[in-house]
Design brief:
- The protein is mainly α.
- The chain is built from 20 helices and no strands.
- α8 packs antiparallel against α9.
- It is elongated and about 80 Å long.
- The N terminus and C terminus are likely disordered.
């Protein structure tokens, strides 16, 4: 019985990624089986454009309501586990949408509930995703301690799973956090683990990001030759994978190394290559960074006019990105340039840099206060809420298996009918 239901689930997944969103919605409306419908609701939220926030939240809430309704009935153990898994997925997606909508306070409870359910049914891959999501939420709140802990939990849960994406992403984040704290040996350890355990083209992005991080580690150590070699090796991977943003960032890193070595020809070559890519992508935050670093090249050469022009461009993109940090950094370089020119504009940009730093610190304090308040609720969260979903009312297991069998057969018939319907519409 289970194999038929599994086959049905696979078919649904194929449809989710092979058909458009309207086709999925039509299928959800067409089926009378709650178990199939709720899975389709989840699939719709997974393939929807993130900008369609209201629609995603609506389908998540529909999935939650339907799962809770089914869990309140006398269904069998296996069917109950399926609905608990779907419920956790819907809650996790609701948490992510709150995070995406900058409603951080509302995201935590959804993640917490999802994690409790996933722990209860021992769903390691789903747990890894939830821990990864909540780790990024902690980072947004400047709470690196809990971010570390959550990334480590994601690694632990997914280390032996076939799905390696969450595992490698969590390792990379741990490496980055250790690098930011100058824990070079720990950062290097996680990068080496990524490279050693990667075994397929789907992990290429994990490999070249890890190699790039190793390059940064060697920069800090002062081994610039090894750093350059690693950056170029990382570059080969990212170009092959057509990861334009990462490629542009690596060009920026190489430009910075050569600039610091006073190799201005090579430095300018790489800065220009990075800017060419970013201009085509229109990524203001990244453009602000590369233009600012490029301006430092001319500042080092005492070409203040060219340095000023690039720094002002950097400031414009920093403002467009809305990042207080990027505005601060661009203001600092302009302050330095105008001080060198003995211009009164230096006061203006030095003041702007200070104001942006104050804004960043204010946000950091606000997030800390938010976390302090939330933790009281989070730590005392009633994990016993799972009991209301796990009280299985007496019902013959044979009936449960028969239900699954009927659902499995029905969904296959439904899928075949939907295939011909879709084919006729397309024709």
């Amino acid at each position: 019985m289970k194999s038929i239901f599994t086959l049905a689930s696979i078919c649904l997944s194929i449809i989710a990624y092979g058909q458009n969103i309207d086709s999925l919605k039509h299928l959800a409306r067409s089926t009378k089986h709650d178990t199939i419908r709720v899975r389709l609701y989840i699939e719709i939220t997974e393939v929807s454009d993130l900008k369609d926030v209201d629609s995603i939240i609506k389908y998540c809430e529909m999935a939650v309501a339907l799962d809770e309704k089914k869990l309140s009935l006398g269904i069998g153990k296996e069917e109950r586990r399926i609905h608990l898994s779907n419920l956790a997925a819907a809650l996790n997606n609701l948490g992510f949408m709150q995070f995406y909508s900058e409603e951080k306070a509302n995201a935590f409870p959804f993640y917490k509930k999802a994690i409790i359910i996933q722990e209860h049914i021992n769903d390691s891959i789903a747990l890894g995703i939830s821990y990864l999501n909540i780790a990024h939420l902690y980072l947004e709140c400047f709470d690196t301690i809990n971010a570390f802990s959550s990334f480590e939990s994601a690694v632990k849960k997914t280390k032996l799973s076939k799905n390696r994406t969450v595992y490698f992403e969590s390792l990379y984040n741990l490496a980055s956090l250790h690098l930011a704290k100058q824990n070079l040996l720990e950062a290097e350890k996680y990068c080496d683990e990524i490279i050693a355990n990667s075994s397929g083209p789907e992990q290429n992005s994990s490999v070249y990001t890890a190699i790039s991080t190793l390059a940064s580690i060697n920069c800090i150590k002062g081994d610039t030759l090894k750093a350059i070699d690693l950056y170029k090796k990382s570059l080969e991977f990212s170009i092959k994978e057509n990861d334009k943003t990462f490629t542009a960032g690596t060009y920026n890193d190489l430009g910075g190394i050569y600039r610091n070595q006073n190799n201005f020809v090579e430095s300018e070559f790489y800065f220009k290559k990075g800017l060419k890519i970013l201009d085509s992508l229109g990524e203001d935050g990244s453009l602000a960074i590369v233009l600012r670093n490029y301006s430092k090249l001319f500042l080092r050469q005492k070409n203040l006019k060219k340095a000023e022009s690039l720094a002002l461009q950097s400031m414009n993109h920093a403002k467009e990105s809305g990042s207080f940090k990027e505005i601060k950094y661009s203001a600092e370089i302009l302050c330095q340039i105008y001080n060198s020119q003995k211009s009164n504009k230096a006061i203006e940009y030095c003041s702007l840099a200070k104001a942006m730093e104050d804004s960043v610190n204010k946000i950091s304090k606000e997030n800390k206060l938010f976390l302090d308040d939330f933790k009281k609720t989070y730590d005392s969260f009633d994990s016993d809420f799972i009991k209301k979903y796990d009280e299985i009312k007496p019902e013959a297991e044979e009936k449960s298996n028969l239900t699954l069998y009927i659902i499995g057969i029905s969904v296959l018939i439904l899928l075949v009918g939907f295939y011909f319907y879709y084919k006729s519409k397309k024709g």
